[in-house]
Amino acid sequence: MNEIIQSRKPPVATTGILGWLRMNLFSNWVNSLISLFVLYILFQFIPWILNWTVFAADFKYNFNGEEIINREMCSRVLDPETGGACWAIIYVRFYQFMYGFYPREEVWRVNLSYIMLAVAIVPLLFDKFPFRKHFLKFTYVFPIIAFFLLNGGLGLEPVSTNKWGGLLVTLVLGCTGIALAFPLGIVLALGRRSNLPVISMMCTLFIEFIRGVPLITLLFFGMVMLPLFLPEGIDMDGLARVLVAVTLFQAAYMAEVIRGGLQAIPQGQYEAARSIGLSYWQMNRKVVLPQAIRISIPSIVNTSIGLFKDTTLVIIVGLLDLLGIGRGALADTTWLGLAYEVYFFVSLVFFIFTFGMSRYSLYLEKKLKTGINMGAD
Amino acid sequence: MSDDSIISLQNVNKWFGDFHVLQDVNLEVKKKERIVVCGPSGSGKSTMIRCINRLEEHQEGTIIVDGIELTGNLKNIDSVRKEVGMVFQQFNLFPHLSVKENITLAPIWVKKMPKAEAEELAMQQLEIVKIPEQADKYPGQLSGGQQQRVAIARSLAMKPNIMLFDEPTSALDPEMIKEVLDVMVDLAEGGMTMIVVTHEMGFAKTVADRMVFMDEGKIVEEASPDKFFNNPESDRTKLFLSQILNH
Q1: Strands B68-69 and B60-65: what pairing?
Q2: How far is B188 from B208, CA to CA, in rounded Å?
C-alpha cells in the first residue's frame, strides 16, 4: 500500500537578512526581548548623538552665521536647548592639535613626514604590495630621514623638540616606541630563555623590574634621573629621554609576549634546526622566531595599542601630546567649558589609529590561518 | 678504534637526573655500515643516537664522529652536525616554510650556497625521495609519509656521511610506512652509513649489517641479523623478539 506523504512546510529561512535576524537576534523569546531593548536604546541614542555631533553642531560659524571666535558665540552657549557641539574650538586650534607649536613656515616638514610615514608603513603591512622590496628599503631609511626632517640639521632650520606637540608627539612616541621595542623585545625574550645563566638572569631582572613599575615612574626616571647617568656636559633632549623610557617599558612587555610565542614552539623544531647545522642565531631567525611571532601577533598588536594610548601619560613630564594640547585648549579662558568637544575629538583621533591597528591584526590572523596550515601534525 | 671506523662510542655514560640512561655504552660503526638499534621503550636507544650529533650531551666517555671528538667545543659540534643527518619520529619539518624552502634552508645559510643552486639541489633530493611534485606545498598539506620523506630529503641536502634515524616510521599510519622504508632501503643500497632505531624487523632483516639490542641503558647484544633473529644469545633478546615478532 502506498500512501501519499503529506507535503511538509518549507524550512525556516536561515540565509539572507531575515534569516540572519532570525538566527542571531530573535532565536527565542529571551533573545528577542533583549534585541528589542537594545534596538530601542540605539534608536534613542544614535539620532541624539548624530544631531549633537553633526546636524546641530557649529563648525566655523554659529546659527547666526557669525564666525565663532570665543565660547560665548557657540550656539550651544547661546541656546543650550537646540545647540550642538561647538567644533570651532577644534577648528581654531587644529594646527596645534596636529603640530603643537612647530613653526608655521617649517610645517611642510611635518606634513612630509606624515606622508612618508604612510608610505613607509604600508609595504610593511601588506606582503603582496607591488615592488615591496624597494619600498621596504625606504621603510628602513625613513626613521633617519624623518629625524633630520623634523629635528632639523643638514641645512634645515633646527626646530627644538619643545616646540613639537599634538599628534606629532603622539605619533613620534608611539611609532618610535613600537618600532624600537620590537627588536629589543625579541632580544630580551631570547635572552630570558638563554642557557647562559648570566644573560638569562639579567634579562629576567630587566623585564621584571620594568614590568613591576608604572610607566609614569619610568617617565619621571627618564626625565629626572637619566641625565644623572650621562657624562657631564651632555644634555639629552627631553623628548629623547621620554622616548628611552617609553621604549624600555614597551620592550619589557613585548619580550614577555614574544616569550609566550617562543614557548609554543615544539622542542622538535629546535632539534631539527640544530641537526641540519643551523647556528643559534640562524635557528632563531629562520625557524623559531617566524613561527613564534606569528603566534603572538594578536598580543603584539594588543600591547602596541596599549602603548599608543599610554603615550598620553607624557603630559605628566610636560610634553604636550594630542591630549596635552586638548587640555591646554580647555584651560584657555576664551574657550572655557568646551570639554565635550575636545575630549570627543581627541578620542576620535586615538580611536582611528587603534581601531586601524586592531582591524589589521584581525586581517593578519585570518590571512595566516587560511594561507598556511600551521603545525605539521 | 679501528681505522675504518666512522663513529666510535667508548664507555659512554649519561644520566637524566638520577636516571642512568646510558650505562657504559661501547659501539663502533664502520664506514657504509648499516646498523639497526632495537629494544624496549626507555632502553636508551634514542638517547644514544641523539648523543651522536650532540642533541643530548653525554657526561662520561668519549664519542668520536668522523675523527672529531664531541666535547663542549661548539666548533666541533657544528662540524659534526654537518657530517650527520638526522630524521625524527615526528618529522619536525618547519611548518612556515614550503617543502622546497625546508630543504634549501641549511644549504643556503650553513653552506652559503646560491639560491638557484640550492633549489636545484632540493629538486634532486625530492627526486630521490620520489615526491618532486610536492615542492611548493607546505608541510601541513602533506601526508605523514610524504612529510617524513621531505624530512629525509632535507637531511640529505646537506650531503651527510652518516644518517641517523630515530624511529622514522613510528608516527606513521601503517599504509605509509612502506613508502618511507623504501626510500631508506634505496639510501642503504647507495652506501650511506646509517644508524636506524626502529621496530620494523622486516626492514632490519633486509638492510642491516648488524643488529644492536639495548635494554636498560646497556647494549645487551650485537650480532648479524641472521644470528640475531635465529639464534640470539641473551634471554632478554629472546623475550623481546618473541614479543615483537609474535603479536
Answers
A1: antiparallel
A2: 9
Partner-chain contact B106 A291, CB within 8 Å: no
CA distance A123 to A74: 44
Of A269, A274, A276, which to mutate for an interface test with B (greatest number of B Cβ within 10 Å)? A276
What's A163's DSSP letter? G
Question: In terms of C-beta distances under 8 Å and separation of at least 24 residues, what long-range contacts does B202-210 make, across chains too?
Answer: B203/B36, B204/B36, B204/B38, B205/B229, B207/B34, B207/B36, B208/B34, B208/B35, B208/B36, B209/B33, B209/B34, B209/B35, B210/B33, B210/B34, B210/B35, B210/B36
DSSP secondary structure string for all residues of B75-106: HHHHHHHHHEEEE-TT----TTS-HHHHHHHH
Query: Does the reported pTM lie above 0.90?
Result: no
Chain B residues in contact with A368 by the CB 8 A cut-off are none
Q: How many residues appear in chain B?
A: 247
- Express each pLDDT in A250-297 by its tens digit: 999 999 999 999 999 999 999 999 999 999 999 999 999 999 988 888
Q: Compute the nearest-CA separation of A370 from chain B (Å).
A: 12
Q: Which residues of chain B does A287 touch, with a Cβ-Cβ cutoff of 8 Å?
A: 94, 105
- Contact between chains at A376 and B92 (C-beta distance less than 8 A): yes
β-strand partners of B64:
B8, B69
Test B105 with A272 for CB contact under 8 angstroms: no
Contact list in B for residue A276 (CB cut-off 8 A) is 81, 85, 105-106, 110, 154-155, 158
A189-219 CB burial, b ≥16 within 10 A, e <16: bbbbbbeeeeeeeebbebbeebeeeebeebb
H-helix or E-strand containing B215?
strand B210-215
CB contact under 8 A, A278 and B106: yes
Distance CA B62, CA B65 (A): 10
DSSP H or E stretch at residue B28: strand B19-30
Q: Is B145 helix (H, G, I), strand (E, B) or coil?
A: helix
User: What DSSP designation does B69 have?
Assistant: E
Q: How far is the CA of A260 from the CAs of A166, A188, A250, in angstroms?
A: 35, 12, 16
Q: Is A11 on the interface with B (CB under 8 A)?
A: no
Q: Are strands B60-65 and B5-16 parallel, antiparallel or unpaired?
A: antiparallel
Q: Which residues pair with A3 in a beta bridge?
A: none
Q: With an 8 Å Cβ cutoff, are B55 and A275 in contact?
A: yes
Q: Are A35 and A22 in contact (CB under 8 A)?
A: no
In tens, the pLDDT along A75-126 reads: 887 887 787 888 888 888 889 889 988 888 888 888 998 998 988 888 888 8
* Chain A residues close to B154, C-beta within 8 Å: 272, 276
